[in-house]
Amino acid sequence: MTGDEFNASYALCQFLPGPNVVNLSVIFGGRIRGPLGSVVALIGLIGPPFIIVSAIGFIYARFGEIAALQRMLMGIAAAAAGLVLGTCAKMALPLFRDRLGLAPAMALLTFAAIGVMRWPLHWSLAVLVPLSIAVAWVRR
After folding, report:
1. Residue 138 belongs to some domain of the structure
2. What does pTM read for this prediction?
């Protein structure tokens, strides 16, 4: 593929439903070897993770009741939660550089509505999204 062909294919993959990398692998495989290439590229992309996760699932089904394994998985879950929180903090840092700006206020209001007051997500966003757009429009 040339650079222009790749860019056109990638743009198409972003438009199509589903994960971009899966769509791109199907298109790339198809360009190389036709329909068989598409199938092989798709299997090569999603096959190994499927096998690994299935094997882990079978192992967990067999040995999941062992107390040491449960404690280990609780530790892994805590580490994963910490990674997610750390990533969220890094992503939110630019929002909070403007100390009393609109973005931090809307982020905190959204957190309070959904995380603290336990309001339904769809109702909270149905109110907060138009509100934030209106406030940003007025500030322009």
Report:
1. yes
2. 0.52
